[in-house]
Amino acid sequence: MYPWISAVFLMVLCASQHAAAQSNIDPVNCYAWTENLGWINWRAEAVPDQGVVVHGTFLSGFAWAENVGWINFGDGTPVGGTFYSLADGTDAGVNVAPDGSLFGYAWGENVGWINFDGGILAVPPDPARIECDGRFRGFAWGENFGWINLSELSPGKFVAVEASFAPLACDMNHDGAVDGQDIGDFLRLLFTAQTPGWNDVCSGDVEATPDQAIGPGDIDAFVACLLGSA
């Protein structure tokens, strides 16, 4: 990222506060730790409509750090609809790859850019990601304050989505039930070039040896999963 885009991104941050969505971060498991900033709350209860929202291919909303204020994960409207382009401050935020890896940047007015690709440089490498149980893990890097730890194990000291948003195997439309209504979404992702969300891959990559993609190897297991739930 380039320093000149910071002011542009700050203007987008201020404007986007009026269009924030309800956070789907778990209200208990919503904290990430950083040695120099303390706890970062991904779902501030005082303003839950400004908490972080996990979508299929990107994050949006705000986390609250008591010592430095709001951290913006993106405005929820990436150009192209899938990923923030990261080309400039008008389309910056944190993206989620189909395998759950996080990449891109969050922004805090008082701390600057936070690189969610940064964990690959940790020792040992531990990139930031969201896993199929709905938990975040790994590390992100703040250019002005160091590491954000997403890998704490104790309840209440890590970040996870609410249980109702955690992916369910074969539930391709993410309505909490495995039934015939999931077939169309499975076939769409199997036969088109549409980029699947991390939650789509968690639900549809059901072959015996998952490869973090939805492909022909998942067909038999998906059918068996549907029949087993009938």
Written as H for each helix and E for each strand, in order along the chain, the element string is: HEEEEEEEEEEEEEEHHH
Beta-strand residue percentage:
15-25%
Mean pLDDT: 90
Which segments are poorly predicted (pLDDT under 50) over 5 or more consecutive residues?
Answer: 1-19
Q: What is the helix fraction of residues, given as a range?
A: 10-25%
Radius of gyration: 18 Å
Biggest sheet overview: 8 strands, antiparallel, barrel
Distance between the terminal alpha carbons, to the nearest Å?
50 Å
Query: With helices defined by DSSP (H or I, 4 residues minimum), what is the helix count?
Result: 4
Number of domains: 2
| Total strands | 14
Strand order of the largest sheet: 1-2-5-6-8-9-12-13
Shape: elongated
**Class from helix and strand fractions:** alpha+beta
Task: Please tell me about this protein's structure.
The protein has two domains: 5-164, no CATH class; 167-229, Type 1 dockerin domain. 17% of the residues lie in helices and 24% in strands. It is built from four helices and 14 strands. It has helices at 5-16, 183-191, 198-204, 219-229, and strands at residues 25-34, 38-41, 53-54, 59-60, 62-65, 69-72, 94-96, 102-108, 112-115, 129-130, 136-137, 139-142, 146-149, 159-161. The longest helix has 12 residues, at 5-16. The radius of gyration is 18 Å and the shape is elongated. The N and C termini lie far apart (50 Å).
